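[PROTEIN RECORD]
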Amino acid sequence: MTTTSHEPEQFSVVIVGAGQAGLSVSWHLTQAGIDHVLLEQAGVAHEWRTGRWDNFTLVTPNWQCRLPGYDYAGPDPDGFMTRAEVQDFVSGYAASFNAPVRSGVEVTRLAERGDGGYDVTTSAGHFIAEQVVIATGGYHDPVLPAFAAALPASITQLHSSEYRNAGDLPAGGVFVVGTGQSGTQIAEDLFLEGRDVHLAVGGAPRVARFYRGRDCVAWLSDMGVYDVPVQQQAGGLSKRESTNHYVTGRDGGRDLDLRAFARDGMHLYGRAHSLTGGSVLFDPTLGDSLDYADSVAESIKDDIDRYIAREGIDVPTEDRYTPVWQPTAEPTDLDLEAAGISTVIWSIGYRANYRWVKVGVFDGAGHPTHHRGVTDSKGLYFVGLPWLNSWGSGRFEAIARDAGYLAERLIERVSLGRAHDESRHGQLAS
């Protein structure tokens, strides 16, 4: 429970958000003895409680779950934590160093102070901070297409973040739109539960779960792929808009092969673009999207093969993937009523929402401008964003590195401020 105070509280650092990113920064500040507070609207690890479906698992292996001062210590390092296990892991991390979290506090406004530092307005009163770390992630407002409003009222609509399990949905077919990590895994979850699934396939790439005796994540980690700064990627900063490769950690981990789903009875379509007379219309992109996803998965195997050869690693060879299904024709429409569709699940992403941040550190699209989380506004930082520094920035162990880098900047700035104050006080005393 929070109480409103008329007197502002002052801290060297205010961290907005108490997920794994904000907590990682807090750990470093705690070790350095820097006074700070984490302001959390819903509670530690709340996104793992409320923003995932029941059968969710991480797509990265447990050994990659490394935060500052706190590594995965369970019995299955090569396995994949469930939603509840991730929640416990992050909550346990906060408890391990008694992180100074204020739960139930919504930050409504962040603005610069005229004399330096920042004003932080919240539902629990006013805070003053010399420095602020925004650790709220980059996924805030669910995206729905414009034609969603034209769907018949009889059809249940929900965003992927609201999906929990097949049993919660009305009887009938389910139309899933989007094939990023969430869309493909939700489509599989529904399909395994015996639902009639229709899937609009987008342009997301895929990756094999295992290749030549190891998880592909392990190979790519050894190869340093997750550590390459975004500025060195093809396309530079535009890489931050990339969609992650789809794969699953369910049941010990496996590929997500949309062609195999189609072979077994799932209905696949190209990119959905509009609604006319109760029918969803599609671009003829299904074949190209499936081919592209496969080509990316195979190109990753090519990279792994070259790495194995270059390093002289003795591992068995493996046959390459052969497509198990091809579309014979490109479906152009789906009559929802005729197909018995009762539910549509939109899995086409999120928009960032930083309207509460009244500091000029954003580009024309509303994305924060920064270098490794450091903005041009002195003392203001971001952490926990996808591609903050590298592809790995969305994964636990790279979040830890990103947080460590920012913590150095924070601690340095606090130390300089204290040294300045001591010098000033000494001059006044003399």
